[in-house]
């Protein structure tokens, strides 16, 4: 019991440290008068990856060919997709290897079910796939304003010139059969129930 509590505290501390470090890297240059801070195109993949490490997916019936892969679908511009590809493709997560795929054109529910995580910055795409419209155990991360409060995304990343934060929609996570660790919830700017 004590070891479990110590393990949880250590994971929470590591997550807190990583989140603080990412925030500092993004905003430190602007605070000391250096050139522009790191763009959100570079930061969003890193934050999505860190948050994913603290979300639990159920054992699923994914095709055996997909068993060793963790699929991230990016429904965004080429620049954002290329950033996800460069930063995350091939990295390990939860005993699997990240595979980043650009989602373009019509998004079929059957095609989307292979993904564990979908990132979008498009309100149109979010309306098609968010809020439980696509059944499956996928985490939807978005930068669309209000996407967590509406329940369309499980996580909304909010970045502006002065701060970086995220909000979590528990209802969307539960509908997708996902569970976020308390360390993620405690760092969220707001948890929508």
Kindly describe this structure.
There is one protein chain. This protein is α/β, with parallel strands linked by helices and 193 residues long. The chain is 40% helix and 22% strand. The chain has seven helices and ten strands. Helix 1 runs antiparallel to helix 2 and helix 2 packs across helix 3 (78-88). It is globular, with a radius of gyration of 16 Å. Residues 21-37 have low confidence and may be disordered.
Write the layout of secondary structure elements.
Elements: H1 2-31, H2 40-52, E1 55-56, E2 69-75, H3 78-88, E3 92-93, E4 96-102, H4 109-112, E5 117-120, H5 123-129, E6 139-142, E7 155-159, E8 164-169, H6 170-175, E9 179-180, H7 182-187, E10 190-192
Parallel strand pairs: 2-4, 2-5, 5-6, 6-7, 8-10
Antiparallel strand pairs: 1-9, 3-4, 7-8
Percent strand:
15-25%
Considering DSSP H and I runs of 4 or more, what fraction of the residues is helical? 25-40%
Helical region count? 7
- Count structural domains: 1
Regions with pLDDT < 50 over 5+ consecutive residues? 21-37
Write down the overall mean pLDDT.
81
Rounded radius of gyration (Å): 16 Å
Q: Which geometry do the CA atoms define? A: globular
CATH class: Alpha Beta
Q: Could you state the order of secondary-structure elements as H and E?
A: HHEEHEEHEHEEEHEHE
Number of strands: 10
Strand order of the largest sheet: 3-4-2-5-6-7-8-10
N-C termini distance: 28 Å
CATH topology: Rossmann fold
Give the second-level CATH assignment, the architecture. Answer: 3-Layer(aba) Sandwich
Category by helix and strand content: alpha/beta
> Main sheet?
8 strands, mixed
